[in-house]
Design goal:
Blueprint: E1 2-7, H1 12-21, E2 29-33, H2 41-44, H3 49-52, H4 85-88, E3 92-93, H5 98-107, H6 115-125, E4 126-128, E5 142-144, H7 152-163, E6 179-182, E7 184-185, E8 187-188, E9 191-192, H8 195-200, E10 209-213, E11 216-223, E12 226-234, E13 237-249, H9 252-262, E14 265-266, H10 268-273, E15 280-281, E16 293-301, H11 313-326, E17 338-342, E18 353-358, E19 374-381, E20 389-391, E21 402-404, H12 411-428, E22 437-442, H13 450-460, E23 462-463, E24 493-495, H14 510-524, H15 532-538
Parallel strand pairs: 1-2, 1-13, 2-10, 4-5, 13-24, 14-15
Antiparallel strand pairs: 3-7, 6-17, 8-9, 11-12, 12-13, 16-19, 16-22, 16-23, 17-18, 18-19, 20-21
Helix pairs in contact: 1-14, 6-14, 6-15, 12-13
Length: about 550
Amino acid sequence: MTYDYIITGAGPAGCVLANRLTEDPDTSVLLLEAGGGDGHPLFHMPAGFAKMTKGVASWGWSTVPQKHMKDRVLRYTQAKVLGGGSTINAQLYTRGNALDYDLWANQEGGTGWDYRSVLPYFKRAEDNQRFADDYHSYGGPLGVSMPVSALPICDAYIRAGQELGIPYNHDFNGRQQGGLGFYQLTQRDRRRSSASMAYLAPIADRANLTVRKGATVLRVVLEGKRAVGVEIATRNGTEIIRADREVLVTSGAIGSPKLLLQSGIGPAHHLRAVGIDVRHELKGVGENLSDHLDLFVICECTGDHTYDNVARLHRTVWAGLQYLLFRSGPVASSLFETGGFWYADPGARSPDIQFHLGLGSGIEAGVERLKNAGVTLNSAYLHPRSRGTVRLGSSDPAAAPLIDPNYFSDPHDRQMSIEGLRLAREIMAQNALKPYVLAERLPGPSLQTDEELFDYACANAKTDHHPVGTCRMGTGPDAVVGLDLKVHGLEGLRVCDSSVMPRVPSCNTNAPTIMVGEKASDMIRGRDPLAPATFAHERNEKLPRAVDTVR
């Protein structure tokens, strides 16, 4: 069968495209997803993600040994389920700093992707429970709400920041990013509002949309310099499906370059090295990988102040009943509802550290829960200079990719990450938290020097799961797609996900990826996407000026 558009992954951007393109009843769309459906109840319970990030919901990939981190291999969760990362993440709705997008435009050649240009697409996606102002809107597909199960330790954490000189911020996505406070969450009616639930579930009856789960895309089919379809793996072998208009690659910052490389699109020397015929040389494919590396402080609590003890059987049962009956309690928590943004480098252009307060001690992979209740404060450096790669390990599409974020390859990242960790320790040591915090257990008071904290980072750091940049947009020789997201030198092929971002935004990447999907849908439909201020004017929306949060 032939479709107008084939979308190669049902992650956040893919779900957006499926919804927006099928608004035209004369346009047929095939949405392909290698994983399964999101019907399991744990996908929809806010705290359920802690149980669903492994196994059937993930590809199970890891990084190559990180040579600047004493050859540490890090688990690298990439979603394999309808809705992609939005189905298994901690539901934090953050957009980054206005200056992030202005840098895309001014330093990366991303004309039309500045803050004023992308803000209407953030707003179009949003159904905000609380805010309706220059920065927010309601009535869109994506539910955005405030936490409903915050614990007293969360307020104490916010007070601790103020004792240290970090202000309270009621809206990280508004006029100022800096400060500590409560995150907005992608939830509606105390259930996860994934891209699947927000964009696909409401249009399940559209006759012009076909969704195929368990469909792994092996390659993009090229005829000359035009993409004409895809080849997918089936139970009986392989199948080629044709696209009359375009193939839209939305397989994520790891999956999208992997798919292009498998299709013979990428650096010629690498393709030949793994035995793949070069169909279109494009040296930037798989380059420019950027990600946030996360360090954390774990403290033992003075009492039962977090959700650690919910793991006991009788409390687990009660928590489940509490959620089912009242939509409240531990299961209604995303476990990381409080956090904020501040500075490791006082001269930074905008906040360069992000905090997540984890309501437990055993949340991080590979870290055992404390005997008594504990609390975790994560810190991530937001402006990494290190860049890595995604490469193929072989010509076999079933083989795991070689993921090399190249963490700490730039010494500046190492120093700023350690400064962020020190700042997290200071917050946890403030008087406001003394009724809740007994003592720091990790890194532990004995580790104080930069070298000791570096050793701790090498042994314990994790990814924040924010990879971007591997099919970078732009006009230079290393760019993979143009500003319209069309792959350079090919027809009928676009990449429309986080892989096109020139550099990682200063935030969690779910909301920015949904924005990319929204903007891409207008590009594909020819709605003058490089001048979206016109679109905003038509809706009588006010576009605020970009916000500079430098102190």
